[in-house]
């Protein structure tokens, strides 16, 4: 169950970026019978600031984006921004009397976050954007600080405590109650309690028992006699059990296994006649497993195999013969980052022996199709990672790809992408430029949010995703090698999508370590793709300077697509010149 989690307005600038990552090698670049294919075309919206230099995003719900932004004074305030408003602008949510505030989560019109109060401690707040007189509501605190971490409907859940003190507690606050107030969820006899997930009126998490061990708990705020329910354990030696997600009456998490010191994934049905913790077992005889999410009756999580690999898994509690089913390939670690409506997304990780670092590749698994693996791909020479899934039936995936251009193979920049699983010919869609250094935070429906790097500082940004049939132009490869003595390098540029019209694109070389006039001849111009033409080439003259020197490189860049085309990714290529006179 997906729970919304915490993790002087300037003029709004709207930029159509429409950058698309080139299709993988097996994808046909031209159109088939049945009409042109559609591509995702993102519209980037700079949400601005509150008069200062920077702003950042925390969450999105529908068309409402929340986060924090600097005022002219340099102090940050919580903000909300409704992309669907008749006159969209950044709304300053104010404070609870202190200097700063920040919004951490939103569901519908309810924004929650933390604000300084002017006293010793910060308090959780709620702000209803749809209220007749919207204002920041102080949720108070049981003791010390209070911080909201979850919100679902009118129920806010979070934690309270005094820094350095012995006890941290969990609270719930129902904004729609007749007498709204902060409720201390208590503990299982020990000092600390931590809330992990919320669905409707049911809160789950883990709490310390009187003997110092940690047990999973559930707390139903709507029960006739609300109290913390100890979900028990699996009888193992481990002193930690944790409930991490809930959907309806079913709670999932992990607890100590019956034998040894390992942990197993569990499920617990609060509505059962005799509720008990069900051990979901392990994968392929491995030692450990841990559930991370549940949607309906399908549990997803991670498990370690007997061979030591980490694998994602799914487990259908309603199946005639429930069994833990591995997702991904043997010999590759697979990590889940999000799941929704039968679609699981995450990363496959392998080692690149040449650069001795892990190489990630974004993947999705369609649980309705037997857990079919979908390789989301990446830009040639780079790596990718999935962050979230949303849209209709989880058909949109949000993530980022890295270029790996330095000599150690470490990623220099992150570039956000979306991937439409429902497209006829799916491909990565880059939603920001090479130079922006954007970081994505979340995806809800067809709105992605994150933070981009501007010259003035970091800026809160949203990308509205729409489908288009326009053609896409990009370099075929991110990285290419040429011998210094070859005299010429030929670099391919490809047009993807529809080919029923002529399109153009500008290109130019750019100095790297290799210098124009010394290592190569500077070149620029315009490439024209006639009707039906899918590939053109750029020729760069290489100059042999007869000097002993290491490998050098330069960049080629594309810009200004014409004829209704979109600029794809990679819109730059790294040309490496291997010395011939060492």
Automatic annotation (TrEMBL):
<feature type="domain" description="Calx-beta">
    <location>
        <begin position="460"/>
        <end position="559"/>
    </location>
</feature>
<dbReference type="GO" id="GO:0010855">
    <property type="term" value="F:adenylate cyclase inhibitor activity"/>
</dbReference>
<dbReference type="GO" id="GO:0016020">
    <property type="term" value="C:membrane"/>
</dbReference>
<dbReference type="GO" id="GO:0001965">
    <property type="term" value="F:G-protein alpha-subunit binding"/>
</dbReference>
<dbReference type="InterPro" id="IPR038081">
    <property type="entry name" value="CalX-like_sf"/>
</dbReference>
<dbReference type="GO" id="GO:0071277">
    <property type="term" value="P:cellular response to calcium ion"/>
</dbReference>
<keyword id="KW-0677">Repeat</keyword>
<dbReference type="Pfam" id="PF03160">
    <property type="entry name" value="Calx-beta"/>
</dbReference>
<dbReference type="InterPro" id="IPR003644">
    <property type="entry name" value="Calx_beta"/>
</dbReference>
<feature type="signal peptide">
    <location>
        <begin position="1"/>
        <end position="27"/>
    </location>
</feature>
<keyword id="KW-0106">Calcium</keyword>
<dbReference type="GO" id="GO:0004930">
    <property type="term" value="F:G protein-coupled receptor activity"/>
</dbReference>
<protein>
    <recommendedName>
        <fullName>Calx-beta domain-containing protein</fullName>
    </recommendedName>
</protein>
<dbReference type="InterPro" id="IPR014262">
    <property type="entry name" value="HAF_rpt"/>
</dbReference>
<dbReference type="InterPro" id="IPR026919">
    <property type="entry name" value="ADGRV1"/>
</dbReference>
<keyword id="KW-0732">Signal</keyword>
<dbReference type="GO" id="GO:0005737">
    <property type="term" value="C:cytoplasm"/>
</dbReference>
